Amino acid sequence: MVMSSSLGYPRIGENREWKKTLEQYWTGKVDEDSFQERIEKIRLEHVKKQLEQGVELIPLGDFSLYDHVLDTAVMFGMIPDRFNYKGGKVTLGTYFDIARGAKGAAAAEMTKWFNTNYHYIVPEIGESVPELVENRPLFYYREAKEKLGIKGKPVIVGPFTFVKLSKGYEEADYQTLVNDLVPLYGKILRELQEEGVEWVQIDEPILCTSITKQEINRFKDAYGILKQAAPDVKIILQTYFDHVEHFKEVTAIPVDGIGMDFIHDRGENMTALKENGFPGDKILAAGVVDGRNIWRTNLDKAHSFLSQLTEHVSKDRLIIQPSSSLLHVPVTVGNEEALDQTLRNGLSFADEKLQEVVILTRALGKGIWTVQKEVDECLKSIGDLHSSSIRNVQSVQDEINGLTSVEVGRRSPFSIRREAQTKLPLLPTTTIGSFPQTREVRRQRMKWRKGELEEGEYQQFIRAEIKRWIDIQEEIGLDVFVHGEFERTDMVEFFGEKLEGFHFTTFGWVQSYGSRCVKPPIIYGDVNFKEPMTVKETVYAQSLTDKPVKGMVTGPITILNWSFVRDDIPRHTVANQIAISLRKEIKSLEDHGIWMIQVDEPALREGLPLKKERWDEYLQAAVFSFKLATSSVQNETQIHTHMCYSDFEDIIEAIRNLDADVLSIETSRSHGELINVFEENTYDKGIGLGVYDIHSPHIPGREKIISHTRQSLNVLDPKQFWINPDCGLKTRGVPETISSLKVMVEAAKQVREELLVKRES
After folding, report:
1. Radius of gyration from C-alpha coordinates of the chain
2. pLDDT (tens digit, 9 = 90+) per residue, 469-523?
3. DSSP 223
4. Which of 573, 586, 423 lies closest to 495, judged by CA?
5. Is the terminal CB of the chain with fewer CB neighbours within 10 Å at N or C?
6. 577 phi and psi angles, rounded to 5 deg
């Protein structure tokens, strides 16, 4: 009979209790024993919730103290040498040092998990041979069995995906590294088999990228070894985020089941299944509930789709599940009492998605008539949302239809614009935008939101913070200032609150990296500009100094990719709606005398499709939206953009095409490796390579910044080069921020003097 399954559950908890527990431990407010007790309680509560929803195959080991890829590296003792690891089970201190950095040891690099807004810690392949120092899946299986009486489904990142996501090796060594890991995976499975485990989920989303048939043949050999190691354990080879590459070869891999995403595959998985059939000795785990977006599943359509599947795969060989882990969505709609009712009825978060999985399982197994009430309610809710006035704003739709007549190129080439723009010293120093959001800033904002602080009092407080940090920037000696963004909770949420077509949850948090949680806006209607959003604070900051102050705007693609986006129209149409609104905002800043405007696009690369053949289509649309927002300005206006934690070599041509005057990017965690991109690719505009890691609480070393800068100047013209941190400083403390920026400015001055001496000599 058809079964229900979950691939992974949000770690953070309904009230972010996971985040709060982590941060209490990091700040020394709880000791390690108390921390572990609290974390265990949270972890088991998550398992119980899935059990109570009626899910039959409950994932175990998807929970993490920071990141599941880091967990995998730690399980195999793959610890960078700089952390002085001596073997054996990795301590909690070392685990967090890898993620967050330690004195004298930089944190491991962090980058996007495929095309999502989740960041994973990049494993570093060292000289040491991996070994199994802790069987994590076995630990979590035993815990759930002993304390909850359930036999769950251990979840593991597969060996091929793990190595592909790692760094520090040559491509020629890829298969050797996989071969080193396969026996360790075999040992994990063998110990799970001895414990009585029936099902194991091994995640290999790399199968949905543009890989070759030759690579997939290597999967056959490796998974053949794993099946021999534990023949009684049923392995589900789980894929997600797109359709599998080379369907026939993937379904021939010697495992017991294949998990496929039938939501984000654009119909390709079903087409391949119809053309090739599905092996009679395997189970198909069908992802038919969207694990990445928050819209209610059309149960009628999903049931019809599943009925079509049964023409090719019998019901007793079907598992119904979300398309991916529910890590990417909030926990529950149940607490969102303040939401507009029409919108609320159209939403589905993690708990509701599991309910949908269970409903669809029952409908397929016992007949749709057994869930007709749920189906009818679902269809009404979806219909009400689609017909709402917010999704049918004629003026916005007229602007979108008129885009063919809009110019999206700058008035003059960069060489001419540069001469017209503000003159700055060599190696100008600046920051990325935000300054520390102290407890007092957050407290005053909360009082204002609750109505406990009058509008005038709140604005006075914000102006005082802006003035304080303008004075601090003057004292530090920065060349280009920012106003600090004290009025903003989040770089996307802020703009969403001021544009029509957005809505916000109260508890809709998701994990971005580590304990960093974000509350993505919901784009549920046509996006429309109402009034200037950033002008007041920026103009006030500029009035306090003769130094240029950057206007700070979040770009259209980042707003799109960091929001939950309506699914009834194409994503690029939504991006262009946002861009038209930002175009009006940028024009307003310029009209008020702001001649430097930073339009941040840190999420541009993360939207890349997993299939390389679709990259050009996405990048062309992204570049169009950015230029639609920015290209109406005068030559004198300098457009900056910021990107972070990306493989820039993949998008260097698109970055050029953005035609921004200054690009700032991260290089601190990647230890200057991004500089290599500019050795191989010409870039003629301004560029700021982030010289220190703001995600680490440690003050950067002056000599290290100087070394980074000198290294960069080996491949970049000093006239191009800017000095800045690698990201915004919102999450940092005030003393460390001031100290770090002072070190950065001192380092910049020293290198500037060295360059001037060279010129004179």
Report:
1. 26
2. 999 999 999 999 999 999 998 889 999 999 999 999 999 999 999 999 999 999 9
3. H
4. 586
5. C
6. -60, -45
| Residues 6 or more apart whose Cβ sits within 8 Å of residue 558 | 491, 492, 600, 601, 602, 603, 604
Q: How far apart are CA 89 and CA 74, in angstroms?
A: 8
Burial 470-500 (b: 16+ CB within 10 A, else e): bebbeebebbbbbbbbbbbbbbbbbbbebbb
Taking alpha carbons only, the member of 68, 62, 202 closest to residue 144 is: 62
Catalytic annotation on 246?
no
141 near 154, Cβ under 8 Å? yes
pLDDT digits (tens, 9 = 90+) for 515-564: 999 999 999 999 999 999 999 999 999 999 999 999 999 999 999 999 99
Residue with tokens 């950057």: 550
- Whether the CB-CB separation of 429 and 744 falls below 8 Å is answered with yes
Q: Which amino acid is at 376?
A: D
CA nearest to 468, candidates 480, 457, 476, 479: 476
Amino acid (1-letter code) at residue 340: D
Min mean pLDDT across 68-72, 366-370, 442-446, 728-732 is at 728-732
Burial 192-231 (b: 16+ CB within 10 A, else e): bbebebebbbbbbbbbbbebeeebbebbeebbeebbebbe
Q: Which domains does the chain have, with CATH numbers?
A: 57-197 (3.20.20.210), 416-760 (3.20.20.210)
Catalytic residue among 483, 695, 698, 708: 695
Provide the token pair at 690: 């982030």
Q: Is 61 left (phi over 0), alpha (psi -120 to 50) or beta?
A: left
